[in-house]
Design goal:
Blueprint: E1 9-13, H1 19-26, E2 33-40, E3 44-45, E4 48-57, H2 59-76, E5 82-87, E6 89-92, E7 96-104, H3 107-124, E8 127-133, E9 136-139
Helix pairs in contact: 2-3
Amino acid sequence: MSSSDAADRIEITRSRIPNGELASEVRTDRDGAVATFDGCVRNQSHGRTTLYLEYQAYEEMALAKMHEIAAHMHDNYAIGRIAMVHRLGRLEIGETSVFIAVSAPHRAAAFDACRYAIDTLKKTVPIWKKEFFADGAVWADGQLPPVPAETPAGKPASN
C-alpha cells in the first residue's frame, strides 16, 4: 500500500476545524469535483437532548490509521488530494468534530472516496465520543445497527 500523498492534510486538533480552508486546499486545476463531509455536533441523540460532546483518542494510533485510510483512498480511487481532520476535547452544539474533503477529476470518485473515508474512520480509528445530557453522560459506541423488522424496538436484537 502506498503512503498518503504529501499534499494531503491528515490531522488531529483541539482547535476549531477550518472547513472552508480545507476544502480549498485540496482543489487543484486538475479537479472537477471536491466532495466534503462535515460531521457536526447535533442537539439530540436517541431522543435525548445533547448538551455537548467530548472526544478522546489514542492519538498516535489514530493518526496512523487516518494515514492508512488516505493511502487506501489513493490506491483505490481516482482522486487528487485529501484533507481529513478530527477534533478532540469538548465540542459544543453545531461545531465540527470531523471534516473530510476529497478532490478528484470526476465527482463519482470524490463522493465514493469521501464516503469510504468517513465510514472507515468511524469503524477503525481509535477516537471515542462521550455524549453529555442533562441527566448524565454516556460513551457512544458509534453508529447503532438498525433494529431488524421482526425485533420489537424495545427489546435487544440478541442476548
